[in-house]
Design a protein that fits this description.
Elements lengths: L14 H32 L8 H18 L5 H18 L3 H4 L2 H24 L7 H22 L2 H31 L10 H27 L5
Amino acid sequence: MHAQQSTIAQPGYDEGLRVYMLGVYNQMTLGLLTTGLVSYFSAPILAPLMTTGWIFLFIFAPLVFSLALIFGIHKMSVATATMLFYAYATSVGLSMSTIFILYTASSIAKVFFITAATFAAASLYGYTTKKDLTSMGTFLMMGMIGLLIATVVNIFLVSSMISWIISVVGVLIFTAMTAYDSQRLKDEYLSGGEVYGLDSQEKSSIFGAFTLYLNFIVLFQYLLSLLGEKKE
């Protein structure tokens, strides 16, 4: 995560910016749709495998695809980057299929709409605010590292209280991250690609969709752990 001063002139209206941001959100939405459909239809098939060694494939596949996209997008073509993004969205769908086994369908739908509303509000704030959110970057990165450490520790402690705290903090961090990344996307367009340092607007659109998609998915998972109703 690189700090980038949000000091670019803010136009009253920029049709190119509007088209760029719509493209990012449309790409992100298609990724979420892919994840949701894969997750829903694969749940009955994958349920028996979740108690076997295959579970590690479902856990680590999204990580592999995301790292490949993060570190390889500079060298790959637009078509390859797009394919990798949807491969990542598919692998996340497979890994999240257990939510349809653990939680009621009504609570999943409820949490999804809560996530969508939270995400939309945070993203709109990041896009419209004149406040420079750059300074949040280091704080948010430290927060995510802290969340990861706490999650690993709680694997051994198995504390419901720690799990609740992790989820609350996770919601706060990834809501703020959504606002931060939305502003970075705006600056990416206005700076002519200086934020991500990619060689085409198409690639920056894909990478922007990936970052917002990731924020949405993680935010949804934390909210589901807080508000989801488990099946009897």
